[in-house]
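Write out this protein's structure.
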Amino acid sequence: MDALLLTLTSRPAEVPPGQPAAALVEAGLAQCKIGQGGIQRYALTKAGTARKQEVQAARKAEEQARKQAEKEAARAAKQAAKPSRRTTAPALDEARLLAGVRALLAEHREALLRELMEWHRTSPSPAAPAVQPAAQQPAPPDAAAQMLHALQRLDAQHRYDGLVPLRALRPAVPGVPRAAFDATLLDLEARRQLDLKIANDPVAVPEPEAGIRVDGRGLIYYVVRR
């Protein structure tokens, strides 16, 4: 009936031959003029016109959907047929990269060194922090007595023939700071309780750093008790 309805108009028209116009009349979609030979002319009623518009809109929507689907399919096929423009990034050659960096450094090495030396020459040197002199720790009250006792004991044990080296005397009197130790020895020498002897060859003696360097005198290295 929809196909027949689409062929009809709201204006009076001749009945198409062989079309079941009676069915339209029964559905109330058309009005007719009946003559001696039957239905001669007809026209769509308001209901028929509305129905025809609905059918036309549905057909139009179906046609648009079909065309859109065909267009999407054609676009997808065309896109699939195109070669991909994305190129694969070449794998990173670490050896070549390292060689390039080395070559670049070698090329600019001299210039960099010159700039570094110039910067070092012209840059102000940072002020060195002031070094506070360490407070001298005093010797224990019995330091002199300990030294004299250790001097006698070491000479008897090791047979130094009176010349006890400072490398042996220092560890024998523990707990006495070096500066206080040296000051006590010089004080004992000034009081004539012992003598301090220098090493004739400071380089040849073992552990020369154990001695006492005195300007104008040399390296005091041996202690002799009087």
